[in-house]
Design a protein that fits this description.
With about 240 residues, the chain is of the alpha/beta class. Helices cover about 35% and strands about 30% of the residues. It has 10 helices and 10 strands. The chain has helices at about 40-50, 70-80, 95-100, 110-120, 125-130, 140-150, 170-185, 195-200, 220-225, 225-230, and strands at about 1-15, 15-25, 30-35, 55-60, 65, 80-85, 155-160, 190-195, 205-210, 215-220. The strands form 2 sheets. The chain has a 6-stranded mixed sheet with strand order 6-7-8-3-9-10, sandwiched between helices. Strands 2-1-4-5 form a 4-stranded antiparallel sheet, with helices on one face.
Length: about 240
């Protein structure tokens, strides 16, 4: 079953077209990655899906409902949750307070204890840091909080924007292992990443975005062997 469908979606900044006629599908229970170089339009695409940016054309359908006209808070209520690039935590609030803020929508606010338990199962270190100010955590720990905050909202679709950015190789490995666990627990993931190799290895399907347009689409493992991808993104 297709959970999310974009059909010829276009997004503009003034007179500049940032996303042009993008069509893609996200199957329920899958990990779908969008890869591409800096400035390709990956974050713009996520922000369009989440309603932060208005689309200038095309349709966005989620669980059979057209959502392209909805404001961001209504899209959150539908079950689309975005983990933003750069984490965007509240540094002067504790880890626990940051996590609890994720459970603000109607579907999750009555289940905070169970949701916290689930987040701590993914990231045991956060339970030990629950009373620590988020701004004092390492970059890797802050990324764990950002992902955990997204999970607290009980997403049907978790969109993650550059979750490995600026992290050490060991933490990057942990992040991608967690994304695979999230999928195995039944949550659909739409992933934007510059770490193309790791993305291809864990993704069911991958879309390559360049200059605001999809130029290539295929299964993750299949694209690992595509000479265009190997040369342009893997340096092979």
């Amino acid at each position: 079953m297709q959970l999310l469908d974009l059909n010829n979606v276009t997004t503009k900044y003034g007179d500049m077209t940032a996303i042009r006629d993008v069509s893609l599908s996200v199957a329920e229970g899958h990990i779908i990655s969008i890869v591409g170089s800096n400035g390709a339009g990956k974050t713009t695409l996520l922000n369009t899906i989440s309603g932060v940016l208005p689309s200038a054309g095309g349709t966005i359908t989620f669980a059979g409902k057209e959502i392209g006209h909805l404001p961001p808070h209504k899209i959150v209520e539908e079950g689309i949750i975005q983990v933003p690039e750069g984490r965007l935590l509240f540094p002067d609030m504790t880890v626990l307070e940051n996590l609890e803020l994720g459970a603000f929508n109607r579907r999750s606010r009555k289940e905070i204890p169970a949701l916290l338990k689930a987040v701590y199962n993914y990231f045991p270190k956060l339970e030990d840091r629950a009373d620590q100010l988020a701004g004092t955590l390492s970059g890797g720990e802050q990324q764990m909080v950002a992902i955990g905050r997204g999970l607290m909202a009980r997403p049907k679709l978790l969109m993650m924007d550059e979750p490995s950015l600026g992290l050490s190789p060991l933490v990057v490995k942990t992040v991608f292992e967690t994304i695979s666990k999230i999928k195995s627990d039944g949550i659909t993931v739409l992933l934007v990443e510059q770490n193309v190799l790791q993305s291809l290895m864990i993704s069911d399907d991958v879309y390559v975005l360049e200059n605001g347009s999809i130029i290539l689409n295929g299964q993750g493992r299949e694209l690992l062997n595509d000479p265009r991808v190997r040369e342009a993104y893997l340096g092979i």
